Amino acid sequence: MKPLDIHRPARPPHLARSFTGTYRLTGRVAFFDDVKTPFLKLRLSDCEGDHVALLNLDKTSVPERIGHLDTVTATGVKGLSSQFMLHEFRKATQDEMASLATLQSLPRVYCPVRETFDQLVSTAQSLHSAHLREFLTRVLERQDRMEAFLNAPASVSYHHAYPGGLLQHSLDVANNAVAMLRLNEPDMPRLMQETCFVAGLLHDIGKTYTYDSKGKPNAAWKLCSHDAFTLEACAYGLAYLDQHAPDLAIMLRHVWTCASPGARYGQPAAMTLARYVRDADGQSAMADNQQRAFSRTNGWGFSRLGQNLFWRPEGPTLQPQ
Description:
two-stranded antiparallel sheet, 11 helices, 39% helix, 18% strand, HD/PDEase_dom, hydrolase, hydrolase activity, TraI domain-containing protein, HDIG_dom
C-alpha cells in the first residue's frame, strides 16, 4: 500500500467528537507507541479526501480478510491532530455501501488530476437518472478498475500520455459529446443527454485492462485492442440496466460498438449519439496532440508530433491579442 503521508493540524481535546463513516481502505501501517502498545495507522479515503485513523490492537481486533481498497465502516472519536481513534473497524455492509452517494467511495488520493476528478464526481452525482447513477457505480467503483481509471494515461505516446490522462480524455469526450448533442438537437430529452455523457465517459474504459493500477502498460496492452474490453468492463453495469432500463443498455452497447474511429466493430451508426461520441473522441485526441506539438515552438506555423503534421496560421490578425 501507499505510505501514509498525511499531516493535519492539531485540534484541542475539547473538540473531540464521535463519528461513523464508510470509506475505502487505502493504506495501513503497524507501529508501537512509546509504551509498546500496538497500533494500526489507517488511511480511510473517499471522493472528498482522506482521514488518518488509529486502531489500538490491544483493545480492538481487526477482522480478517480486510484488504486494500475494501469498503470499510469505521466508528470512533475524532481528537488530537484531527486523527480518528477507532473503537470499531469492519467491512461495510451491503446496505451501508448502497447508502453512499454515486462515486463517493472513489479514492480522490489516487487521481493525479484532482480538478478533473472533482468534476467527474459532481457531474455523476447530478445525473437525474437513478439507473445511470447505479450503472456508473457498478462500473467505476469496482476494486479492479478504479485505480487504473484514475491513474492511467489515455495512451503511451499519443494523446493525453500522462498519469490521469485517461480520466481527462474521458471527461472531455463526455462533455464535448453532450455539447454537440445540445447544439444540434436542443430538444433531446435529458435522459438521452445523460446517456450520451455516460457513453462518452466510458468509451475508453477498456483501457483499464491494458494498464496496471499504477498506469503502466501490461501484457494486454501488447496483445489485445482495448476496444475488445469495453463491454467486458461494463458487463456488471449492463446486466443491471438489462433488468431495469433495457433501452439504455442497448443504446450504450450500440455507441461503443460503432463509435470508435474506423468503426472497428464494423457496425454503422444508427443514432446521432454514436457520431457525437466518435467525433468528440477524435477532437479531444487531436486537440491534445496539437497542444503538445506547439508546446516547444512559438505556437504558430507548422509543427510535427510523430507522423502528424499540425498547422496554425501565422497571420497577425489570427494571433491572440
